[in-house]
Amino acid sequence: MHNALFMPTPHTRGVRIAGYTYVPYSSLESVIEENKEAYYLALRRAQSGLRLQIGVKNEPNWEPWLLFFLRSLKTQKDRLMQKMAREQLLEGALPELSLRILEMIRERGRIQSSDVVKATGETRGTVRNRLNALVARGLIARHGQGPATWYARVSVALGDEQIPTERVE
Questions:
Q1: What are the residues facing 111 on neighbouring strands?
Q2: Which domain holds residue 84?
Q3: For residue 125, what is the domain's CATH number?
Q4: Is residue 132 part of a domain?
Q5: Bridge partner residues of 161 (DSSP)
Q6: Structural domain tally of the chain?
Q7: Distances from the Cα of 100 to the Cα of 103, 107, 132, 136, angstroms
Q8: What's the rounded Cα separation, in Å, for the pair 82 and 91?
Q9: What pLDDT shows up at residue 161?
Q10: Strand-by-strand arrangement of the 20-26 sheet
């Protein structure tokens, strides 16, 4: 199960919803999986006080589980912040037209050069140059040939997880 994070960032890859960017590449599950031993130890310690005994007051100790959970959340947040910083570096040096093209792909899932020409008013040559530059940088992929050519996102490795190529709706 992958969690999502909504953050008001202008150039982070993801789907924009109500002014926020949906970033579908943060997994709390992977953090817990990497720390299975600590997870089960914290769980056992918390459950040890739940043993039902007649005449004995049950006082569970939630602290080990809560500390594990909060540490896991912090680890997840730190990883996500590193990934977002890498994303901003990747896109930070791009020309405005390239950023608009990436945004169009985010919104539509895929585009053709004619879509960009219509939406931006730029010349076909300028659009083609920007699309070729984005393909060369590995930020988008070209599919097909000739007038039927279309462009979509590619999966880019960021740390230990992948940004999915499919559009999130």
A1: 151
A2: 3-92
A3: 1.10.10.10
A4: yes
A5: 158
A6: 2
A7: 5, 11, 14, 17
A8: 14
A9: 40
A10: 3-7, 20-26, 15-17
- Domain end, chosen from 66, 92, 118, is at 92
**What pLDDT is recorded for position 156?**
41
Q: How many CB atoms lie within 10 A of CB 132?
A: 11
What's the token pair of residue 48? 């040890």
Residue 168 lies in a domain: no
10 and 82 share one domain: yes
Ranges under pLDDT 50 in the chain: 1-13, 156-169
Helices 96-108 and 124-136: angle between axes, nearest 10 degrees: 80
Task: Tell whether 74 and 145 lie within a shared domain.
Answer: no
Report d(CA 146, CA 133) in Å as an integer. Answer: 18
Give the residue ranges of DSSP H helices in 93-146.
96-108, 113-120, 124-136
Q: Where are the alpha helices (DSSP H) in the chain?
A: 28-34, 36-48, 63-92, 96-108, 113-120, 124-136
78 and 101 share a domain? no
Per the confidence metrics, is the pTM higher than 0.70?
A: no
